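U., I forgot to send this yesterday:
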Amino acid sequence: MEQVGTIKFLEVLFASTIVFDAGVFLWVLIFNKKKDPIVKIFYGVFVVLLLWESSAWISFFIKTPARLSLLIDQIALASSVLLVFLVTYFIWRLLNRSVLQRFMIIGLAAIAIFFIIAVSIPGVVIGSRVYIDNTTYNYYLTQGPLFFWYYASFIPVFFVLFFLVIQGYRRSQGIQRIRIAYVGFSLLIAMCICLLVACLMPTVLSVMNGREEWGTTFAVLLQVVAGIAASIFTLSTVYTITRYRLMSIQVLLKKSIVYGASLLMSLIVFIFITTLVYDNLHSIFVWIIALILLALCASTYQRKIRLFFNKIFFLDELDLSKNVAEDIEKLQSTHELETAILEYVAGIQRIAKIDVINLFIEERRHHRFVSYFPLRNKESISFDDPVLPLLNGYAKSTQVILWEALSDQTGTKQICRFMEKQNAAVLVILRNTEKVVGIGMLSAKKTGETYTEEEIEAIEKLSKIAGFQLSNCIHWQETLEGMKLKLKEDAYSNI
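Result:
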């Protein structure tokens, strides 16, 4: 009976890890808007992980006919191989395809395909499952000629993954290094545990041959440990997405939701404890004291909760909305054109690790746009340039134009050539309610990653305010210059 109770507990525990991993996958799939290839690989990792966990759970806790049992075991073994390859490929892509050469990844793919095919053929890796008694978990597997080599193949792949993570961590910097640390090292821990389980499991199932009760329980425990180890990677991934924007996925946990849920849970716990105390003391003073404590400590507790969750889930460095709000405030506090330009450029560079290649500002007196950044120079764009009407047309719907998106469209050759001339990946249109007052040229990201939707939205929000503010600064500067000119004319007329 004691063994049955232990097995039942392990069954529920393993099932809960599957539910957790499935919940994380659905959470990212539903709320994430980013559709980059690396995110699709990430989805693939989770789909195969869920396939492996589900087949492993069924193989231990549900007794099925012989043919179906063999199919489930084949799915479990094949998905294990595919999962190991996908996580290796995922880390390689996360490192921008550095550290390992492409032919090595192709070689790993070939090994994975070979063993997936081998597993699918009965008798090559495993032959059949033999049940010892009426329980679902007391069985052993008949081994094929490649059974040993199947498990042995995981060892070199583990060392390749270890090398990949260590080298990626050493070569990366800043936020990317933290991402690699969390995702890479949690993956290595999970892989190490699963590899140990993979080595011990055949021994336990075959050598014990169902004769020892503790051997069967230990086999189930090993499988559950492997499932929990996989969830370590899942948990680390969730944390890295929410706090450090893994794969540049936009934060899915909104601050208002986190704060609201935590305060609601705190209130429920507070009421529950107060009710327990009241049930024991049967005094109205319990509720009176509870309400007094709630009134005195509510604001302090709320502030502490916010600080606590900010430290765990939200990193100010990556909170673009907060950064943009601060930059807009600085931008609106100046009337000098040069200062406003520098504030705008600083704001753009805070949003993403990029260079502002050029910033052209309207100069109505000379009927042109003049380059003001990085240094004011003779480079200019005439008001008669044929690209300006096109930019005016685009500015009505968007202020940020990506070269990648534009190059796929028809009728945009002039703007594409205009951007290529400046070696710009992004063109920003600064305008007021009437016309274009500035044109910004932004470089590609220094990390080699593509611009995220959140970054584009932040650039657009900042540029919208900058367009109006620069227009005001231009008007202010022209007014001052006009006044100076008038004073000079008056001075000459009085001589």
